[in-house]
Amino acid sequence: MRRQLENLIERLTKVTVQPPADGRTPAVPGASVLGELHALRHRLPGLTGSLVASADGLPVAADLPPQVEPAGMAALTTSGLALSQRIALTVQDGGFQEVVIRATGGYVVTYAAGLVASLTVLAGPGVNVGRLHLESRPAAARIAALLEEAGAAAPRPPPAEGPRHRRNRQ
């Protein structure tokens, strides 16, 4: 039963890449993105894991600790990202860029990777958060470029308009 479930999860979480119109072999973004995740871990002491999730909540690449299941984490990340985008629209003009969760055991930070995906990094409690941002923000931009180039993640539809609050200006 467990093996059947694992096979089903594997089939449902595969990211498909449409072949280019010119007939050349498509790039597989997972390998390039995974390389970016490994490089990020190498540059950041205290990083315990990372994940790239597509806009529809599927894992694209993961470098996670064994106790964190990639498909579940990708789904949670995407749900949190949708909520964060909604909050950002409600309280101010501007789009979502990142969210930081600080827990007793460390940090979970999710960055927008363009309009196509998100990068989530896990770090221990002693991590230098400034350095975490300094390394992770450009990594998210590079990952977005890799995914857009490969056409691997569907563009995220624009979020619904949140309530607009007028500020009194005198």
UniProtKB/TrEMBL annotation:
Segments of this protein annotated with the region Disordered: 150-170
Name-wise, this protein is: Roadblock/LAMTOR2 domain-containing protein
**Any Pfam family:** Robl_LC7
Domain (Roadblock/LAMTOR2): residue spans on this chain: 34-123
Query: Sorted alphabetically, which InterPro entries does this protein's record hold?
Result: Roadblock/LAMTOR2_dom
